[in-house]
Structure formats: structure tokens, C-alpha cells
Amino acid sequence: MKRCQTISVELYSMQFACIALTLAVLMQGCASEQPKNVEVRSASPVVVLTAEARADFDAAMAYIKAEEYEKGIELLNKVAKAAPTNAIPNINLALVYKKQGKLKQAEDSLKLALTAEPDNPVAHNEYALLYRKTGRFKEALELYEKILEKHPNFMMVHKNTGILCDLYMKDYMCALKHYVIYSDAMQDDKAVKIWIADLQKRSGK
After folding, report:
1. What is the dihedral angle through the alpha carbons of 190, 192, 195, 200, rounded to the nearest 10 degrees?
2. Higher pLDDT, 140 or 9
3. What is the pTM of this model?
């Protein structure tokens, strides 16, 4: 069964006291869904958006949903300037650039997101996915491990770590460990249960 990349074809809604994974699925490309009720808290302060900036963010999301990416990018850049201590606009910029195949711009946007919020776990997760996409598997694993040290209940990182270890690094014990952690918490994800059974059969566990 195909393991597909999670989160990276979705966009994040604006939150200011924390980063809750409240997602609008705007670009399809993966059969698995973001699990519900997963919250990753950030230490960033509350940022109050002006009505204009809020409207710009909502308009950017609408443009991207309609695949009018350049208009969405323009507005997200405007919002990022209006809320320089919030990572979400630049995370979404990175996702759009990655969708377009502009990986250098995607990485630059993630660097800006982490400048705004150095401990933002969602930005770090997206950076790890970018590392994976560009063949930097060791760096991706190190970043996943760093995220999980602070956010051990960020289940999508366990799933992404399992995929990295399984398909890209051929470290099946690592993959099995993270798939099991994820599956125990996310019982409705039947695909991962199949992956676990497959790995157990291949490894004799």
C-alpha cells in the first residue's frame, strides 16, 4: 500500500495563542486524512490581526483553493508582514511553493516561519517533509526527533517518521516503532494498521 505524504498538500488556518491543526483541505493528493483533535501548542504570544489582515488571509485561502496561486502568494506575503511574529502565513507560502515545485522558495518561507516562531512544531514538521522531498533523509530524521522531544503527542510526526524510516531509510524497526505509536493513538487510520502488519511479516516480528 502506498504511503503518501501527509499535511503538505493542505493549508493551515490562522491561530494566534496556539497552533491547532484546524485544516481546510484545499489541494488533494493523498488518500489519508489529517487526524482530528490533534493540537500542538506554541509558546508564541497572542497576535491581534487587523480586520484588513484577517480579510487578506481569508482571501488568500480562497485564491489558493481556486488555484490562483500568485494572487494567494501576494496576499500571504502581505499578511506575513502584518503579523511578523506568527509562522502560519509563511508555512502556507511554503506549501504553495512546494505545490508549484519551487522548493528553494518553499525552504526560504519555512526559514522565515521559524524566524518568527523558532519552536513552532508545525513549521519544523514541514521543514522535515521538505528535507525528505529533497533527499536529505538524515536531516529529516534528526528534525523529527527534535520535534518529538518537545511534542511527543504530535501524532502526525510519528506517522511521517515511520514513512521516512520505512520507505526512504529502510530502517524497519524505526518505522515499526513510530507506526505503532501513531496507530495506538489514531485507531481510525486503517492504512497504518496494514503497514504495521506488512512490516511485522517482513521482519518476523
Report:
1. -100
2. 140
3. 0.80
